[in-house]
Structure formats: structure tokens, C-alpha cells
């Protein structure tokens, strides 16, 4: 089991983000803390999880919450299930709320891994107007090399110097366990500037890097500017080149490309994210959180997809009245579960192992479904896919094309 507590509040609206987040004049943290604690206890009891493998505090901007809140939630989790001493406990942190004393407070509270977003510098081929603050963040996007023009474009509230300082402070407090997020595909970004920014990021980074393409989300200020013609959208072939450039540079720097968007060296893989890609159980706690688990505690025997109530005040009322704020529950059919196992597992370099597939499909093996003539066999002949004693996985070249390979594989699975 992997609990994922969500802190839904942000201090500012970022131009690119459409996550479930709220900017409010004041947060009743004591009430939010009590509800996170209660919902964590309730859902862990429902899931009957015996041991917790990892905890991930996401958001919103969870680093705006106090270390006391993290400690209370971790205490509740440890009281409801076994939380091993070495379990990975990650916090997404924003540079503007990541001063060394504050980070140390999180460490004392039980956080042992930090995820800090980093936007790379000099990415704009021409000056752009600052985006109006109309839509806030989720994955935190700090930055070392971030230049301040880009930060304005993204609607961020911190400066490049703050971002650099935050990463350096984090590495001192969480050595080998500080992850940075790199984002590419900004309007006006050039390939050369991206490569130079990556070089600077490689000098700053620790042993884990996540790489994200900026997506234009409906309802965000950045999307409105691009679709309205104020800012240029980067062409698809440039985006593909930027991704390949990053992969090549990171692997050359000693990183293992262990998932489509994630790179680790010295064994610093994200335990929590691996639990998603391996289709293990995870429990979403807090407003808008998502989960996948079997509710054994209430007589359930099938894996469910769960979503908690989005709006924080409504969610708190539900938690106070019935112990949790689950808004939507969908029982996943055996086929839907296998579709998730396939789509998520193929994102990793280990792929879908025979053992994991057998857990969800005891009567129909990987060979029975994908060894027969069909899409998978053709993709193997073309060199994109491998099916062998280890399981089914993409070759390195196939990872970049996964979105185009999956539909055919899912069709073959549905026929099987």
C-alpha cells in the first residue's frame, strides 16, 4: 500500500496548471490536518493494507503545509498499518517554501525524499510577455537555471536564485534523495537553449530526474495565449528532438532511463512512482486524490478506482461526517485491470513481468495473449518490442513511441 496525501492549496496561480488546487486568503490548517489524519486512518482500515511501502505528499503545494501536519499524517499511517523505518516518504516542494530551516523541519517530521521541479534556463528564443496569473501549480516547478523571464511566463512566484538555493539546500539535507523535475516545450523554446539548460541542470541535480513535456491544458492562461496566437507553440518534431536530446544527455551522465519520463543513477529509483507503474495498490488521501485498492474492510473483493471530493471545504465536511470524502468509486473489470497493467508497465524499462501479469491474469499468460500472430509480433519484428523470459517490454527506441504502440496492443488484449 502507498498512501498519497494531497495538499490542495497554492500561494499563486501558475499559467500552465489545471490541477485541483486553490488559492485562498487563509487556510485552516488544523482542520485540514485533522481531516487528512482521519481519512488516512479510514481508507487504510478499508483497504486492510498490512504494510506501507511509500508515502507521497503531493498537491497543490504541500510544502506550504507545516512539518507538524506531515508528522501527524505519518503518525496516523504508522498507527493504522506497518510503516517500515526505511519506507520512502516524499514531499513535493516549491522553492519559495523551501528554506533550509523549513526543509530541516520536514526532515525531522519524517520526510526522507524531496521532489523539486526545475525549469531549465535560457529556453526562450525571444522575450515573451509575462503570463497573467490565472491558473495554479501542481507539480512544483522550481529551477536552477530558470531565468526570470521564463518564471514570469509560467506564472511562478519565486526567482531563479531561490530555485537554485532550494535545490542546493535540499541536497545537503536529503543527499541522494533529492529529485528534480525538468520541463520542456515552452512557447518559443529552442533546441540549442534546451541543451545548454540541460548541461546546467546536470551540474545541479542529484541522482533522480523527471522529465516532462509542457502540455497546454484547456482553461489555463498559457493555453489561451498560445491558442490565441500571442505565443508560438513548439512544433511536434522539435518536441521529439528535445526529448531525445535529454534522454541521450542523461544516460551519458550515468542515469538509467527506467521509465519514459524518469531517470535515476546509483539506484535512486522512486519507490512510490514504481508502485503506480507496477499496478500496486495506492490510497489517495485529501481533496481530489486518486487511489486504486481493494476495499476488503467493507466486504469488497475487486480493485476499485477511487477519487476523493475535489473542493476542500466540501471534502472536509464529508470526512467529518463519515470518515472519508470518497466522491467516486468504480469497480475495475478484469480487462480494465489488465489494460492498466499493460499501459503502465510498458512505460518502464523492466516492462510487464510474467509474475506481475500472472497476478492479474492467472489463466491467460503473456505468451498466450501477445505471443500469437498479431500486433505484438509485428512490433517485435520491427524492433520496438520484446517478449521473452523476462516478460513484455519496449526496447529503448520503442519507449519514445509508446503512445502510438499501445492502441494496437490494447486491441490484441481485448481480442484475447
What's the CATH class of the largest domain, please?
Alpha Beta
In whole angstroms, the N-to-C terminal distance is 30 Å
Query: Roughly how much helix do the residues carry, as a percent range?
Result: 40-55%
The CATH architecture of the largest domain can be given as 2-Layer Sandwich
Work out the number of β strands.
15
**Residue share in β-strands:** 15-25%
Average pLDDT metric: 85
Main pleated-sheet profile: 9 strands, mixed
Explained architecture:
The protein is α/β, with parallel strands linked by helices and 416 residues long. 41% of the residues lie in helices and 17% in strands. It is built from 16 helices and 15 strands. The radius of gyration is 21 Å and the shape is globular. This is RSAD1 protein. Residues 1-256 form the Radical SAM core domain. It comes from Uria aalge (Common mure). GO terms for molecular function: 4 iron, 4 sulfur cluster binding; catalytic activity.
Amino acid at each position: 500500500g502507498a498512501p498519497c496525501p494531497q495538499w490542495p492549496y497554492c500561494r499563486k496561480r501558475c499559467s500552465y496548471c489545471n490541477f485541483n488546487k486553490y488559492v485562498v486568503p487563509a487556510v485552516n490548517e488544523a482542520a485540514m490536518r485533522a481531516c487528512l489524519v482521519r481519512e488516512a486512518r479510514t481508507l487504510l482500515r478499508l483497504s486492510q493494507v498490512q504494510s506501507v511501502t511509500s508515502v507521497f505528499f503531493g498537491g497543490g503545494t504541500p510544502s506550504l503545509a507545516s512539518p507538524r501536519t506531515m508528522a501527524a499524517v505519518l503518525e496516523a499511517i504508522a498507527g493504522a498499518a506497518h510503516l517500515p523505518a526505511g519506507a520512502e516518504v516524499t514531499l513535493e516542494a516549491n522553492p519559495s517554501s523551501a528554506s533550509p530551516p523549513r526543509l530541516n523541519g520536514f526532515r525531522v517530521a519524517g520526510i526522507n525524499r524531496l521532489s523539486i521541479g526545475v525549469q531549465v534556463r535560457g529556453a526562450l528564443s525571444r522575450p515573451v510577455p509575462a503570463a497573467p496569473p490565472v491558473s495554479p501549480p501542481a507539480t512544483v516547478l522550481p529551477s536552477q537555471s530558470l531565468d526570470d523571464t521564463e518564471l514570469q511566463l509560467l506564472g511562478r512566484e519565486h526567482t531563479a536564485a531561490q530555485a537554485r538555493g532550494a535545490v542546493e539546500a535540499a541536497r545537503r539535507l536529503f543527499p541522494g534523495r533529492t529529485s528534480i523535475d525538468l520541463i520542456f516545450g515552452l512557447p518559443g523554446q529552442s533546441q540549442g537553449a534546451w541543451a545548454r539548460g540541460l548541461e546546467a541542470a546536470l551540474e545541479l541535480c542529484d541522482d533522480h530526474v523527471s522529465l516532462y513535456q509542457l502540455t497546454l491544458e484547456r482553461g489555463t492562461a498559457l493555453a489561451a495565449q498560445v491558442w490565441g496566437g500571442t505565443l508560438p507553440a513548439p512544433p511536434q518534431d522539435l518536441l521529439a528532438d528535445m526529448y531525445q536530446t535529454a534522454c541521450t544527455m542523461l544516460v551519458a551522465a550515468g542515469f538509467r532511463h527506467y521509465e519514459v519520463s524518469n531517470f535515476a543513477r546509483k539506484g535512486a529509483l522512486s519507490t512510490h512512482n514504481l508502485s503506480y507503474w507496477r499496478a500496486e495498490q495506492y490510497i489517495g488521501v485529501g481533496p481530489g486524490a486518486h487511489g486504486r485498492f481493494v476495499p476488503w474492510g467493507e466486504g469488497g473483493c475487486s480493485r476499485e478506482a477511487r477519487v476523493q471530493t475535489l473542493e476542500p471545504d466540501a471534502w472536509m465536511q464529508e470526512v467529518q461526517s463519515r470518515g472519508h470524502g470518497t466522491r467516486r468509486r468504480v469497480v475495475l473489470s478484469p480487462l480494465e485491470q489488465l489494460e492498466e497493467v499493460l499501459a503502465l508497465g510498458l512505460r518502464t524499462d523492466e516492462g510487464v513481468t510474467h509474475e506481475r501479469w500472472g497476478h492479474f491474469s492467472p489463466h491467460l499468460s503473456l505468451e498466450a495473449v501477445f505471443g500469437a500472430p498479431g500486433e505484438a509480433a509485428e512490433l517485435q519484428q520491427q524492433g520496438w518490442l520484446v517478449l521473452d523470459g523476462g516478460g513484455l517490454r519496449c526496447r529503448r527506441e520503442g519507449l519514445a513511441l509508446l503512445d502510438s504502440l499501445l492502441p494496437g496492443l490494447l486491441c490484441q488484449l481485448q481480442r484475447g
